[in-house]
Amino acid sequence: MRAAFALLLLTASVASADTGFVWHAPESCPDGEDVRARIERRLGSPLEIHGVEVAITRSGTSFVAHVDTRGVTVANQIRTLTSARCDELADAVAVVIARLASEWRRVEQKPRVAVVERRPELAVTHAATPARTWGYGVHAMALSGIGTVPRVGVGGELSIFVRRKSYFSEVGFARWASQSEYLIEGAPGRVEVGLDVFTTRIGWSPTAMPLRAWLGAELGAMRGQGAALTDPQLGRAPWFAVTGGFGVGWPMSRYARLIGTFEIAVPTSRVSFMLAESGNIYTSSPLAARCALGLELGLP
Predict the structure, then answer these.
(1) How confident is the model over 179-216, as pLDDT tens digits?
(2) Which end of the chain is less packed: N or C, by CB atoms within 10 Å?
(3) What is the pLDDT of residues 146-171, one digit of tens each?
(4) Longest Cα pair distance anywhere in the chain, in angstroms?
């Protein structure tokens, strides 16, 4: 059978024998150029497929086409078509080859996936400004507390400070406004008691946090002025106390902070004010508690 098929290919007319498309058919059949034109009309473009051979033989009153596509695909390597008319058979062969060429073109024209090497992105970081070793400034505070003067006392303080790394020291002056201590509640006789002190504090204040804590001392004088008495006099007594407290400094800008503090003061001795003709009218408390709110200006 293979020998007969080979002999048939040699005896048939060869209308087209290029390497892309080979057509063997009897003289009564369309030639290879005509079949190629039919294929290209169906494709809408020139035939670019390679490795297709077609051989047409007579079998009784019919024509048989053997379409060899082994050069293009391994599936259905040889296809057999039959028709009573060779012209119709040529059309059928053109349809088969056109479809095969379309599939081959889609495979060839698949977009290639470009492999893009992604370079690592360089993160640009800005180094934080290193904390200063030294800082200095001034703060003004409004004071309020109990135990320093009679009733609820109010006052003010002005201080300057110096900081080195996480430690600070400060000195200042504070005045507590005079408050009345009555000889008899509801009577006009009274003594006006106030306090003037110099303050000093040494403490810890980390640059990374707005906290601070300290120990300190204050030295000054408690003043008393009689009022609505038979013999009103002005008296003074020394004042010394040990202090300790903590606070928070909320940054408002680079050079300004809002300060809030709480402090305890323990006097080393208690001060008393007495009337000449009678007994004690006021004795200072053994413990004082104070709160303060103010503004601090300077290099942190």
Answers:
(1) 988 877 777 778 889 999 999 999 999 888 899 999 99
(2) N
(3) 999 999 999 999 999 999 999 999 99
(4) 159
| Residue 128 maps to a domain | no
Q: Which two tokens stand for residue 272?
A: 């008393």
pTM of structure: 0.55
Any idea what the Cα angle at residue 135 is, between residues 133 and 136, rounded to 5°? Answer: 160
The first and second tokens of residue 265, run together, are 């003061």
Task: Calculate the alpha carbon distances from 229 to 151, 192, 271 in Å.
Answer: 20, 12, 20
159, amino acid identity: S
Helix (H, G, I), strand (E, B) or coil at 117: coil
Residue whose structure tokens are 């902070």: 257
**Distance between CA atoms of residues 216 and 127, nearest Å:** 37
Domain co-membership, 208 together with 265: yes
Query: 46 and 139: one domain?
Result: no
The reply to whether 81 and 194 lie within a common domain is no
> What token pair was written down for 208?
């990374």
